[in-house]
Amino acid sequence: MRECRRCPLFSTRKIPLLGSGNIHSKIMFVGEAPGEKEDESGVAFVGPAGKVLDEEMAFLGLNRDNAYLCNVIKCRPPYNRTPSRSEQEACLPFLRWQFLLMRPRMMILLGSVASKAIIDPHFSIMAAHGKIVERKGVLMCPTFHPSAILRDPTKKDVAWRDLATFKETIDKEKLREIRFFVPTP
Ligand code: URA
């Protein structure tokens, strides 16, 4: 990924960010793209949006030791602008590889960019947040991006209701348990 030249973002970013957390987790959070603090540290969700996400994870009984965090786009777009469609297409193979390696049972999709990139380009986060859809055995859980909650705090109650739905499924399926994959010799 450090050598990637598939889109122009490599020329403005500092550190590409593959992801953070536990790769053995069955739960993968997917955001949009690294922000300023993530670009400087190479760690996912360490800026202001990360503080909201930490609260959300705590509500779900999750943390960075039992969940995995990553983004659709691995390099920070200048001024945190929304990544273009062609940048997303160029970067999506990394997320596909991450998905194939981890095989998560649940993907919590943070915001419109992640939900559109992963569920359907016509997906509306306003209309369908909080509704779990199953695709090829993976539970897709769309909700607002933590930055959207920071911009509009009235979204917080709604987002927490989404999380309550996801929590029920996490509890029912015991998704906090970490099972290590041991290859047969
Ligand atoms: N916003 C995102 O979508 N991802 C991060 O890693 C940080 C902020």
Secondary-structure blueprint:
Elements: E1 20-21, E2 27-31, H1 36-41, H2 48-59, E3 68-71, H3 85-102, E4 106-110, H4 111-118, H5 125-128, E5 133-135, E6 138-143, H6 146-151, H7 155-173
Parallel strand pairs: 2-3, 2-4, 4-6
Antiparallel strand pairs: 1-3, 5-6
This protein binds uracil (URA).
Query: What's the helical proportion of residues?
Result: 25-40%
Strand content: 5-15%
Strand order of the largest sheet: 1-3-2-4-6-5
Low-confidence stretches: none
Looking at CATH, the homologous superfamily is: Uracil-DNA glycosylase-like domain
The CATH class, by name, is Alpha Beta
- Our count of domains comes out at 1
Note the main sheet: 6 strands, mixed
- Name the structural class: alpha/beta
How is this structure best described in words?
The protein is of the alpha/beta class. It has one domain: 3-Layer(aba) Sandwich (Uracil-DNA Glycosylase, subunit E). It is built from 7 helices and 6 strands, in the order ββααβαβααββαα. It has a 6-stranded mixed β-sheet with strand order 1-3-2-4-6-5. Strand 5 (133-135) and strand 6 (138-143) form a beta hairpin. The mean pLDDT is 96. The site of uracil has 11 residues, from loops.
Which terms would index this structure?
about 180 residues, alpha/beta, Uracil-DNA Glycosylase, subunit E, six-stranded mixed beta sheet, binds uracil
Give a quick rundown of the structure:
This protein is of the alpha/beta class. It has seven helices and six strands; from the N terminus they run ββααβαβααββαα.
